[in-house]
Amino acid sequence: MNKILRASILILWLQLGWIRVQMKVEQSPGVLILQEGRNASMMCNYSIAITSVQWFQQNHEGHLTSLLYIVSGTKQKGRLKFTVDTKERNSHLYITDSQPGDSVTYFCAVEAQCSPDTCSLYMKP
């Protein structure tokens, strides 16, 4: 029984220690002040190649809503426009003619595209 426990712990340790992805995602500006009727934009920068970007909004009660999933190029959703530039490693959210209901928290999430340069197998010492 003790050998089985040690083998299980070793397998778990190996699974947790094999894959390493170092990625940094930053949004700017950190705080976006919206003025009713004005245009505003927010940028999401990421440090490695990605397969997609997803933009979300979270209202004041904490409800999370997916706004858009985008792989590349430009997409429009009402007064919201989204862009992804994979070469520059950024995505933009543009809000035109902002309304009081646009005053929520916006954030982006990226899906990493693993390659030998960005994801590697290694053993933790």
From TrEMBL:
Range of residues in the leader sequence: 1-23
A Pfam family per the record: V-set
Any single Gene Ontology cellular-component annotation: T cell receptor complex
SMART domains: IG (SM00409), IGv (SM00406)
Record's subcellular location: Cell membrane
Broad class of the protein's primary localization: membrane
Keyword Disulfide bond: yes
Keywords: Adaptive immunity, Cell membrane, Disulfide bond, Glycoprotein, Immunity, Membrane, Signal, T cell receptor
UniProt domain Ig-like: residue ranges: 23-111
Subunit and partners: Alpha-beta TR is a heterodimer composed of an alpha and beta chain; disulfide-linked. The alpha-beta TR is associated with the transmembrane signaling CD3 coreceptor proteins to form the TR-CD3 (TcR or TCR). The assembly of alpha-beta TR heterodimers with CD3 occurs in the endoplasmic reticulum where a single alpha-beta TR heterodimer associates with one CD3D-CD3E heterodimer, one CD3G-CD3E heterodimer and one CD247 homodimer forming a stable octameric structure. CD3D-CD3E and CD3G-CD3E heterodimers preferentially associate with TR alpha and TR beta chains, respectively.
Protein name in UniProt: (raccoon dog) hypothetical protein
Organism: Nyctereutes procyonoides (Raccoon dog)
